[in-house]
Amino acid sequence: MEFWFARDIQHLLGYSEWRNFQKVIVKAKTSCEATDNNISDHFVDVNKMVKLGSGSEREIEDIMLTRYACYLIAQNGDPRKEPIAFAQNYFAVQTRKLEVIEQRIKDWERLQARQKLTLSEKELSELIYEKTGNDKNFGLIRSKGDQALFGKSTQQMKNLLRVPKGRALTDFLPTITIKAKDFATEITVFNTKEKGLRSERQISAEHITNNRGVRDILLKRGIKPEELPAEEDIKKLERRVTSEPKKILGKILIN
Questions:
Q1: Contact indicator for 123, 142 with CB cutoff of 8 Å
Q2: What distances in angstroms separate CA 139 from CA 124, 176, 252, one per listed residue?
Q3: Which residues contact 250 (CB under 8 A, 6 or more apart)?
Q4: Which residues, other chains included, contact 189 with Cβ-Cβ below 8 Å and sequence gap of 6+?
Q5: Under DSSP, is residue 5 helix (H, G, I), strand (E, B) or coil?
Q6: Closest to 212 measured CA to CA, from 176, 187, 175
Q7: DSSP 3-state of 65
Q8: Which residues form the Bro-N domain (predicted)?
Q9: Who's near 140: CB < 8 A, 6+ residues apart?
Q10: What is the largest CA-CA distance in the chain?
């Protein structure tokens, strides 16, 4: 795996004496251990031969460092040294970039989950109309599903999450709850077809059972869907995510 020698890093970070640099390494090892990482996975003691001015060789101690170990050393170094200050700033910037990327991934995941649920509910709505001949039954069945999943009615959940009047509850749910609703809906669609369910009562019972089953799974994993906080309005999220590529392109063209 990729590694660097501590004695090389020592000079790059502005430490002229090995004994002073070793103090930084000790702090870095402490940080490594505090984050539940094995020190031996990132700091490996080695001996190597170096040439002396006379042409002879001498064995010296060194340490093989992983990228993470180098990061910890930089973070525990003396910020008054210019190379250390530069390294700390560099890692801070890179960490922020990673945080932004991770947030964008989460945003896209939530948008995709919402779009997937829309398709599943559309299929269920069409299936219910085909079986019962009534387009009002879908709203009723979905509400019963919400009651089974949250232990509260759709309107109670809207009040709890302060959903604006006229807006869908799902537009303010976190990703995991959106996926939970989608999973239960998919099962209802599948079993309605497989079991040949034809009445509102039969399909409602199926949907309630599926949502209760999904709720049981969540509860067993310590997740209470009705207690999860509201997320950003999905419409605002969609506008922001859609506009970002245009903003980035604009900056590139300006520069």
A1: no
A2: 11, 22, 47
A3: none
A4: 120, 123, 124, 127
A5: strand
A6: 187
A7: strand
A8: 2-83
A9: 200, 204
A10: 97
Label residue 245 by pLDDT band (50, 70, 90).
low
Would you kindly state where each structural domain of the chain is located, as residue ranges? 4-82, 97-242
Name the token pair of 218: 């969540």
Whose CA is closest to 138, among 126, 148, 153? 126
Residue tagged 């509400």 (tokens) = 143
pTM given for the model: 0.65
User: C-alpha 195: how far from its chain's center?
Assistant: 38
Q: What is the pLDDT of residue 252?
A: 39
Cβ proximity of 192 and 127 under 8 Å: yes
Lookup: tokens for 133: 């001949």
**Three-state secondary structure readout of 112-170:** HHHHHHHHHHHHHHHHHHHHHCCCCHHHHHHHHHHHHHHCCCHHHHHHHHCCCCCCCHH
DSSP classification of residue 228: S
Q: How far apart are the first and last CA of the chain?
A: 38
Q: pLDDT by residue (tens digit) across 173-189?
A: 999 999 999 999 999 99
